[in-house]
Write a structure and sequence with these properties.
alpha/beta, TIM Barrel, 8-stranded parallel sheet, two-stranded antiparallel ribbon, 14 strands, oxidoreductase
């Protein structure tokens, strides 16, 4: 089914790359005080919010707060989800209130042949099984002992794209080895020292990553109150880490976790383009003006994102910003979306408004906390099944 077949009406951390030994993985459990459970649920989980509930039960408070936390009052974090529905969220003091504000409605057409529904699509010329991919999120070992290796295996099995985070808690080499056939992009927090960026980009290119995703909305870290209350300091708790593998430790200076460049500007993109053949995707674009600049600077794609509401509170929900960005690029580059996707209906709405695919953040970590690789597979399968139904009932 092509995008123009949808009918819709709108009504209203540059961390080092971790090379973790099993000892360091165990330290996650000691530092954050959580216990993994390998037991199955009494009944099958039916939707992504079921996984959310299980993850909340299984993770320690500090780990849960880190994964779920938003910036400041959490208005944008909550609005990402609410914007797909019928409500906008606002908070007064400690109370969260819902206000009816019609947003997006589907306009179904019937008496159409829906005996075959094909979810496949392409991103940057690579086929994926459905327009549902995995966004870059860090520290997967907080949710499951194998961390990103479990996530990578699930993505490979699902035939979808996994964007590996700069804050991965497993080494890039381990991630590639465990899922050698998977479609992988790499998310980069730009370091102030260009040489270190260059070495890392060359490394991911040699490892077979197929695109470079540069996060643009973290010149500084957002104000995350729950982490402050929990005195959560990943930079201290996770000790020192290096962006290089063991073999490179004698040739590259040791880095601690993480300065991120505060001076990255549009003109710097030409330097990245000069030293890699990978397509460059910008993650964190929310406005027409920045979308037009992205096209002007010859990037290959945009991820419409507000960092899961973890950076600047009070910005537009991702789905609300999508139409503006899609209109600005005029079909010249691909546009993707992350933030707030919880159902197949949400995926369909994003596609209908111009996204090539969506990327999942927190729901992947919920699945990981529930049952590791198998939990992530279940999350992806549920969303694919829901999208299949929504598509068949809409055309």
């Amino acid at each position: 089914m092509q995008k123009d077949q949808y009918r819709i009406q709108t009504t209203s951390y540059y961390s080092s790359i971790f090379t973790l030994s099993s000892t360091l993985k165990c330290s996650y459990q000691v530092l954050f005080g959580f216990a993994y459970s390998y037991e199955g649920a009494d009944m099958p989980l039916a939707c992504l919010t079921d996984f959310e509930a299980h993850a909340r039960e299984r993770l320690s408070k500090s780990s849960w707060d880190y994964i779920e936390g938003g910036a400041d009052e959490g208005i944008t974090r909550d609005d990402n989800v609410a914007a797909f529905k019928n409500t906008s969220m606002c908070k007064t003091g400690q109370e969260s209130q819902e206000h009816q504000s019609p947003r997006i409605r589907l306009r179904p057409r019937y008496l159409r042949d829906v005996s075959e529904v094909d979810l496949r699509t392409t991103i940057q010329g690579e086929e994926i099984s459905a327009p549902i991919c995995i966004a870059p999120t860090g520290f997967h070992c907080l949710a499951w002992p194998d961390g990103e290796m479990s996530t990578a295996r699930a993505a490979q099995a699902a035939g979808t794209c996994y964007i590996t985070s700069s804050y991965a808690s497993c080494s890039l080499e381990d991630i590639v080895t465990t899922a050698p056939r998977g479609l992988r992009w790499f998310q980069l927090y730009v370091h102030p020292e260009r040489q270190l960026n260059k070495q890392l980009i060359q490394r991911v290119e040699a490892l077979g990553f197929r695109a470079l995703v540069i996060t643009v909305d973290v010149p500084i870290l957002g104000n995350r109150r729950q982490d402050i209350r929990n005195q959560l300091n990943l930079m201290m708790n996770l000790m020192q880490a290096s962006i290089h593998s063991t073999k490179e430790r004698n040739s590259i200076p040791h880095l601690q976790m993480s300065p991120i460049s505060t001076s990255l500007c549009w003109n710097d993109l030409s330097w990245f383009q000069s030293m890699t053949r990978l397509p460059i995707i910008l993650k964190g674009i929310l406005t027409k003006e920045d979308a037009e600049l992205a096209v002007k600077h010859n990037v290959h794609g945009i991820i419409v994102s507000n960092h899961g509401g973890r950076q600047l509170d009070g910005v537009a929900a991702s789905i609300d910003a999508l139409t503006e960005v899609v209109a600005a690029v005029k079909g010249k580059i691909e546009v993707y979306l992350d933030g707030g996707v919880r159902t197949g209906n949400d995926v369909l709405k994003a596609l209908a408004l111009g996204a090539k695919c969506v990327f999942l953040g927190r729901p992947i970590l919920w699945g990981l906390a529930y049952k590791g690789e198998h939990g992530v597979k279940e999350v992806l399968n549920i969303l694919k099944n829901e999208l299949h139904i929504s598509m068949a009932l809409t055309v």
